[in-house]
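A common beginner's mistake is to predict each chain separately and then try to dock the pieces by hand. The better habit, illustrated here, is to supply every component at once so that their relative placement is modeled jointly.
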Amino acid sequence: MKFPSVNISACANLANQLSSVQRIMCGYCGRPTLAMGERWVCSHCELAISGTALSIILGDRDRVAALHKVNEYMDANDYQNAQVEYDKIVARYATPELLYNSGLIYLQYSNFQIESIRYDRRGFMEENAKYRESGSALDSRAKLMFNRAYSTCQKIIGSATGANDFAAFTWFMSAVKLGRFRNAGQIREILKGYNSTHMANYAEMVLDAELGKYAETAAHALELLKRDNFSANALYYLSWALFKTGRERDSLHLITALGKQLQSNNIIALTNEIQGAIRV
Ligand SMILES: [Zn+2]
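With all components supplied together, the output reads:
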């Protein structure tokens, strides 16, 4: 497939327009998410959100307070306490969305430990071994949580009642996090059957990005942007596809515009990566 033509300034303009979109706390990760209509994908944890379901979740003061606490710990790089706090929420509700987010916290904790490895430590290399070991143990914990989210969703989808496109979407994202791309492809087909075009389109965009099909990733992102702003993440994936196909400056222009409206780990990491590539 040929890379679709992209009007960069029009897309950057779409990013600027996000300033008028309402920010609401995501009931799963607790980060501020851009409420795009009745259903959208969170800019941080990438789970699908229903506005109606979210307002019920946010009515639970204990849960909101706990999510605030989790993110305070996370911002201070205190992942251990963040996890302890988040585990309490998981123990109370045990929904696949919370299991999935618990996996995300373990994953960030693992990355943090691995980033702590320093090769200038000379006499203290055993310290590095400690970080490496702990990083890999945390990565296994993350996989365990994604697996639990995956099998819970599988049961929900297989049941006569309760199966819905939101559970299918969480199932899909769990498969992606586990690197089970073949399964993710099958779940994407199930998603299409639910008649929720946006979610299916989003799933295609994510899977194509994972499989390195950047022209397709860009095409899906543009499709999502054309209909309406289902999720600001479409702009992120578009930047990613541009960057991966050698258009660093266009990509930087777009991700910078997006970063002014939204601060997420993914956006910061991609911005740094593009800037690094341009400098080299
Ligand atoms: Zn979220």
